[in-house]
Amino acid sequence: MALTKNSPFELTTYEQREYVYNSYFGLATNTAKSYNQKMELLHAICFLQWKMKQKNPEKYKNCLSLLQTIFGREFSTASNATGEDFFLIGLSIICDDLLYGVENDELKVPTDCSTLKDVKNKIINYIRNEWMPF
């Protein structure tokens, strides 16, 4: 959704936009400090959402529903919520944006994955072992 002149938000400078992105959607860092690792995470989430939505579009209507299913809980947006919840919500928004309008694309299976369970485990492993919230 684009901001319009009637929008309640005014993000007119690069710094304002950068602050919003970093605060709500930044991928922080990972233990390997690896660009490729971050891209693999985004691809794994997008791929799994794409596959699961084909199987059950009602249950997997967006990446948030996918990640909540994977982690077995709803994510909190309260001020005392964990950093992980904010990170996973941000990831779901980024991935939903990447998937927007690409229904006809054939997404490639993520590296080192042969089953959907492998993809799920790759996502969980990244969040539990690689993601650093600072």
Key traits:
3% strand; mainly alpha; 5 helices; two-stranded antiparallel sheet; 134 residues
Q: Give the oligomeric state.
A: single chain
Low-confidence stretches: none
Mean pLDDT: 90
Provide the domain count. 1
Strand segment tally: 2
Query: What is the end-to-end distance?
Result: 28 Å
Give the amount of beta strand, in percent.
under 5%
Shape: globular
Write the H/E string, N to C. HEHHHHE
**Biggest sheet layout:** 2 strands, antiparallel
Rg is: 16 Å
Number of helices: 5
Classify the helix fraction into a percent range.
40-55%
Summing up helix and strand content along with how strands pair, one would put the structural category as: mainly alpha
Q: Can you list the strand order of the major beta sheet?
A: 1-2
Please provide a written account of the structure.
This protein is mainly α. The protein has one domain. Helices cover 54% and strands 3% of the residues. The protein is built from five helices and two strands. The protein has helices at 14-24, 35-55, 63-71, 83-99, 116-130; strands spanning 29-30, 131-132. A two-stranded antiparallel ribbon has the order 1-2. The longest helix is centred in the middle third of the chain and has 21 residues, at 35-55. The mean pLDDT is 90.
Quick synopsis:
This protein has helices at 14-24, 35-55, 63-71, 83-99, 116-130; strands spanning 29-30, 131-132.
